[in-house]
Design brief:
By secondary structure, the protein is mainly alpha-helical. Helix content is about 75%, strand content about 0%.
Length: about 240
């Protein structure tokens, strides 16, 4: 990493630190919300919209909306992290850092649109009893158009963003941990996308839940530590 301006670099480091920490918090909230769901209602397997609506009425809970809100916030925070990485990248790595930022923007737009529609339009439509057309929008339907767009964000765009950001962190120690964590997360996301395309439920579940969740948490914790340490060593 190469600093170009002490003031700009310290601002980027602060933004990167708090955004990475925010990513950790939102991912922890997301995980705890879904763990909580295991105790308050049974697992729902999609069959049709009518069955889902009956299930939703039988087991009302705010936990899914909490998880969606956490992921809605994760997208912009992730973009801020990537922007800090780009701002502090060495000149030779600026191209990859810029690609990471662009792919991260795609991820944030795709997933953010999905979660916002679930929190706003879908929730309001179900409450009002207006359910025409929801079959291709509701998140519970793994074959819906919106589910596919969400997976596009989490697999291809997040995966490419992580892979492009990985080479920016050269060196040993914490930089090496971040580099490997970013690369591992990227590969896991891309594998999850392949699993989704071939409709392999096991691959999708393993890659997009415990594997990706753990990898993202390791990445963001390591990045927050990195930004924090850099703040203690300001540019000359």
């Amino acid at each position: 990493m190469l600093a170009s301006s002490p003031i700009a670099d310290r601002l980027s480091l602060r933004l990167g630190f708090w955004a990475a920490l925010g990513c950790v918090v939102t991912f922890v909230i997301f995980t705890l919300a879904f763990i909580g769901l295991l105790f308050v209602r049974p697992l729902f397997l999609w069959s049709d919209l009518a069955a889902y609506l009956a299930f939703d009425r039988a087991y009302p809970t705010w936990l899914p909306d909490l998880a969606r809100l956490a992921m809605l916030l994760f997208g912009p925070l992730f973009v801020v992290v990537l922007n800090s990485i780009y701002d502090l990248a060495a000149p030779a790595q600026k191209g990859l850092a810029r690609l990471a930022l662009l792919f991260g923007l795609g991820f944030a737009v795709l997933t953010g649109a999905h979660y916002f529609v679930q929190l706003a339009a879908v929730r309001a439509s179900i409450a009002a009893g207006v359910t025409d057309g929801l079959v291709q929008v509701v998140q519970a339907n793994p074959y819906s158009a919106f589910a596919a767009l969400n997976m596009l964000g989490w697999t291809l765009f997040l995966g490419l963003a992580m892979l492009c950001a990985a080479p920016v962190f050269a060196g040993k120690g914490l930089a090496r941990v971040i580099r490997y964590a970013l690369a591992a997360t990227g590969l896991i996301c891309l594998l999850g996308g392949v699993g989704y395309l071939v409709q392999n439920t096991l691959i999708v579940f393993v890659t997009m839940n415990p594997a990706m969740g753990g990898a993202v948490l390791v990445t963001m914790v390591a990045l927050s530590l990195y930004f924090r340490r850099q703040l203690g060593h300001p540019s000359p």
